[in-house]
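Key result, reporting period 2: structure in, sequence out.
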């Protein structure tokens, strides 16, 4: 199969996996449900998540159905790409399961990195009134506030985003991403 087809499969799976991760993360962080960005993510994920919720319950704020969907989509992506590259899948189900967990964690860390980077760049230019900025702030504040307690802003410069980006990148590289 051509590299273009593999790229397209990888990209489409990654985009939808990221949307499902955002849905799970938004529920954990209690992001404003009525925000237009939140509504978009809910509408895009609802057709697949609603039937899964009949099988996988939500425990507190943790959506088991969304976590299962992330792992299932990651496993399907890995399987399809490996099958197309090697004309078969020479790995065990356990290896596929472990690879899908690793891929899901790395995708989550990549998403966190980009959200933190975009939020940092927007803080230099924007007034903070866009719905996307509200969502990014609600997603990242639970992780940034503990860092701010340890490293308070120095001369008006908040280093918590930089520290979290370094932690996220360290974890991502450590996992082989």
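The corresponding designed sequence is given below.
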């Amino acid at each position: 199969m051509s590299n273009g087809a593999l790229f397209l499969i990888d990209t489409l799976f990654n985009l939808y996996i990221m949307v499902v991760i955002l849905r799970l993360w938004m529920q954990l962080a209690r992001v404003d449900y009525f925000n237009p960005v939140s509504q978009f993510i809910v509408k895009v994920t609802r057709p697949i998540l609603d039937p899964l919720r009949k099988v996988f319950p939500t425990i507190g704020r943790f959506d088991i159905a969304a976590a299962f969907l992330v792992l299932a989509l990651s496993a399907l992506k890995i399987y399809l790409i490996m099958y197309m590259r090697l004309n078969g899948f020479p790995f065990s189900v356990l290896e596929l399961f472990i690879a899908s967990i690793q891929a899901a964690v790395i995708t989550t860390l990549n998403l966190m990195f980009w959200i933190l980077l975009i939020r940092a760049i927007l803080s230099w230019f924007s007034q903070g009134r866009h719905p996307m900025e509200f969502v990014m702030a609600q997603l990242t504040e639970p992780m940034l506030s503990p860092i701010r307690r340890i490293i308070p802003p120095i001369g008006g410069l908040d280093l918590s985003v930089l520290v979290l980006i370094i932690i996220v990148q360290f974890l991502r590289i450590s996992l082989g991403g």
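The chain has one domain: 3-174. The first helix runs from residue 3 to 29. This case is discussed further under Risks and Mitigation.
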